[in-house]
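Job type: complex structure
Entries:
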Amino acid sequence: MKPNCCKNKSEKKIKQATEFLKIISEENRLKILCILRGDEKCVCEIWQFLNLPQNLVSHHLKVLKGFDLISSKKEGLKVFYKLNQKTLVKHTELLNKFLKI
Amino acid sequence: MKPNCCKNKSEKKIKQATEFLKIISEENRLKILCILRGDEKCVCEIWQFLNLPQNLVSHHLKVLKGFDLISSKKEGLKVFYKLNQKTLVKHTELLNKFLKI
DNA sequence: AAACTTAATCAATCTATATTGATATTATAG
DNA sequence: CTATAATATCAATATAGATTGATTAAGTTT
């Protein structure tokens, strides 16, 4: 008999989970999430912490934002990013269901 | 001030976490883990559940096994795989620390 | 031993995505 | 208005890893 996770209903959730996983499975993106845990930070702080080129960090930020894991506000020249705790928790909980924690 | 996650001590753990994430961020591999949640299964069952070619499944199984997430025993022609719950829990818990759940 | 079954391996290709370099955009300061 | 700073975008390249096809290996059956 076909296991539940191979049925249509689960398929969709598994896809969602793996999308999330792909996004956070990049070392620098996972670090960004950690960096943003405390206060919001501007891009120039982030790339200096990570020791990465600015445009690369912008790219990773865009990916994270595309998944609504972070959000941004512009203040003068700087753009500040902050963690969307809610989204993060939602996806982490979904994941943990699959990992049966 | 440099955030903790960008310091040497955390670096290593973040790397570990992302290695784990990369492995389970593949849809079929995540499914395999779910399939193996109940009983152990032989390869031919797994690839039929997943509707994937046999050699591709063998490849994914090898990746999972390489990370000690599953283990195998041979019985006649068949090879049975089972979940290593312990490893899975260990890595999931490490991950959850980063995600602060 | 020959034929068959199950699974693993290997090389080749395809695909996704990280990275880089150059440039554009937006805002501020002089 | 010009110069500078911070960030985003875009095209090109590099790289990792999934997928495929063919073959091999190991065990079973007749």
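Summary: The interface with chain B takes residues 2-6, 10, 14-15, 17-18, 21-22, 24-27, 30-31, 33-35, 37-38, 49-50, 88-89, 92-93, 96, 98-101 of chain A (CB under 8 Å). Residues 22, 26, 28, 52-53, 55-56, 59-60, 63, 74, 76-78 of chain A lie near DNA strand C (CB under 10 Å from a C1').
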